[in-house]
Specification:
The protein contains 23 helices and 19 strands. The chain has 557 residues and is an alpha/beta fold. It has a 6-stranded parallel beta sheet with strand order 3-2-4-5-7-6, sandwiched between helices. The chain has a 6-stranded parallel beta sheet with strand order 11-10-9-12-13-14. The longest helix is centred in the middle third of the chain and has 17 residues, at 342-358. Helix 3 packs parallel to helix 5 (85-93), helix 3 (53-67) crosses helix 18 (416-426) and helix 9 (193-205) crosses helix 14 (321-335). The N and C termini lie far apart (71 Å). It binds thiamine diphosphate.
Length: 557
């Protein structure tokens, strides 16, 4: 039997989070959450304090995305929570299990509108519009139950962020507390046999099936690969599902090669994916279609039933992706007759894609240089930038699950560097590279201090083109050359990194980048590599992302 202890509310939250497996916490302290920080003393929890709350949340997201384990962060209420809000939205969009621990005004001030420190009108309600769920813990005694719920909901079903808040006085008050063990994971939905039967029928008759994965399949690489091999179906993904079948496997296909195959696909199996790539990027991004009016028959496997309303498939399999893919593979082993020509068709599509991607310069040359030195299990966190967007094509083959961490549909500029720091904290034994533009990097530049202070051996590659290059190009092409707000005067990144105690190198050419990256990965220290470019030298990656036609039918640029 477990014993009750006299604990402060803050200590009760910490102990409950530890019971749920928290070994690292990212956070920025402040008055309301002092007792929570104080309770971390003497525990074996690693405490990492970044220089801005947005980074605390992004780091928790990077930790979660790279491991599949829940990331935890703590910030003060009100402005602290709002500083973290863009990261929370991003984590919601890309399905990261993240738990936010925060404070509240003193309990007697709740709902009074008196303007107590960090007061928001209704913080939990605000959070509920952004993330999966949020609760207030009204007494230390309730902490264990509600923290357990926050962890369970963050990781269960379609993963995403949750939050708990506790009033200032409650967090400091002592009460008898029983720390319960973590709750069992939310149960998987029962698999609907009729839906599996219908999917088997469609797939058994399919000539050219394709599998497309999202974040919801990252935990199921074996099952997805088994299904792909059983069907001899190419497997692809846009961003969050990359690397589930390695892109150097005969059936692992990056986006441009997938587009080459797409027009002939007769059955698409979406696995834990919103399927943005075919229906929004390859179709009309301005026109919502609830049920695709063209293209292949659609089978969707998703744990979230609401997804089936947002994009209606022919067959809806509401299930965990591992379970559903395994069941389908077992049933199809007997029923499916995979096409003998499929492997050759996939290989040919990959050749077409490689030729198209080779013309996307100089981004592809830089990405190939990085791929040449990053180990298979090394993690890349690209940013919204010219080189980052080029990774959407397949210019950087992703070779293992959880090794390519994407911002997802929020497209949040500035997420990359802090997210990569969190991924490195969770994977000290692996190479982790942040790939960012100068604009996005400066959203979180102060975290160089965090890298130096905590010895986070991340290599950050800053592509310095002195501009928001995408904005600059759009203004030049679409607004008669009237450029506004898209060019920068940047700091000297060498001096900047040096002043933070971070090693720095400047390169220009892809082969120099390759050597510099190799050296910094070997040196295992926080490092910044600046790649100096002139504004506007990068070719537009968009024709290879919004592909209305197969790449083999596109005029070479
Ligand atoms: C939070 C947020 N603000 C603004 C944008 C719009 N935006 C997308 S890309 C981009 C420019 C990025 O510039 P930089 O990081 O320098 O990379 P580059 O494209 O120059 O390689 C901007 C401003 C966004 N996606 N997210």
């Amino acid at each position: 039997m477990q014993l009750q202890q006299q604990l402060t509310g803050g200590a009760a939250i910490v102990e409950a989070a530890r019971a749920n497996g928290m070994t690292t916490i990212f956070g920025v302290p402040g008055a309301q959450i002092y007792p929570l920080f104080d309770a971390l003393h003497g525990t074996d929890v690693e405490v990492i304090v970044p220089r801005h709350e947005q980074a605390a949340a992004y780091m928790a997201m990077g930790y979660a995305k790279s491991t599949g384990r829940t990331g935890v962060f703590t910030v003060v209420p009100g402005p602290g929570v709002l500083n973290a809000a863009a990261a929370l939205c991003t984590a919601m969009g890309n399905c990261s299990p993240v738990v936010c621990l925060t404070g509240q005004v003193p309990s007697s001030f709740l709902g009074r509108g008196r303007g107590h420190l960090h007061e928001l009108a209704d913080q939990a309600a605000t959070l509920r519009t952004l993330i999966k769920n949020a609760w207030r813990i009204d007494s230390p005694t309730d902490a264990s139950r509600l923290v357990n719920r926050a962890f369970r909901e963050a990781a269960g079903g379609r993963p995403g962020p949750t939050a708990v808040e506790m009033c200032w006085d409650t967090m400091a008050a002592r009460a008898p507390v029983l720390i319960e063990p973590a709750e069992a994971a939310l149960p998987e939905p029962a698999v609907d046999d009729a839906a599996i039967d219908a999917a088997v029928r469609l797939l058994a008759a399919a000539k050219r099936p394709m599998i497309m994965c999202g974040a919801g399949a990252q935990h199921a690489p074996r099952e997805v690969q088994l299904l792909a091999e059983t069907l001899q179906a190419p497997e692809t993904a846009f961003r969050s599902g990359r690397g589930i079948v390695p892109e150097d496997h005969a059936l692992g296909v990056a986006p441009v090669a997938a587009r080459e195959l797409w027009d002939d696909v007769d059955v698409l199996v979406g696995v834990g994916s919103r399927l943005e790539m075919p229906y929004m990027r390859w179709g009309d991004p301005m026109r919502y279609e609830r049920k695709p009016s063209r293209g292949p028959k659609l089978i969707r496997i998703d744990i979230d039933p609401a997804e089936m309303q947002r994009l209606e498939p022919d067959v809806a399999v509401i299930a965990d992706s591992a379970t559903a893919c395994r069941l389908l593979a077992e049933r199809l082993r007997r029923a499916a007759v995979p096409s003998r020509e499929r492997a050759a068709e996939v290989a040919s599509a990959k050749r077409v894609a490689d030729a198209a991607i080779d013309r996307l310069q100089p981004q592809t040359a830089f990405l190939r240089a990085i791929r040449a030195v990053l180990p298979r299990d090394g993690i890349l966190v690209p940013e919204l930038s010219q080189v980052g967007f080029a990774t959407y094509t397949g210019a950087f083959p992703v070779l293992a699950p959880r090794t390519y961490i994407s911002e997802g549909f929020q497209g949040t500029l500035g997420f990359g560097f802090p997210t990569a720091l969190g991924a490195k904290v969770a994977n000290r034994d692996k190479a982790v590279v942040s790939l960012t533009g100068d604009g996005g990097f400066m959203f979180g530049v102060q975290e160089l201090a965090t890298a130096a202070q905590y010895g986070i051996d991340l290599v950050t590659i800053v592509f310095n083109n002195h501009s928001f290059a995408n904005v600059l190009r759009d203004q030049q092409l679409q607004f008669g050359g009237r450029t506004i707000g898209s060019r920068f005067q940047n700091p000297d990144f060498m001096k900047l990194a040096d002043s933070f105690g971070v090693a720095a190198r400047r390169v220009k050419e892809p082969h120099e980048l390759q050597r510099a990256l190799e050296a910094e990965l070997a040196a295992a220290r926080p490092a910044l590599i600046e790649v100096e470019l002139d504004a506007g030298v990068e070719q537009s990656p968009w024709p290879l992302i919004h592909m209305r036609k197969r790449p083999s039918e596109m005029a070479p640029r």
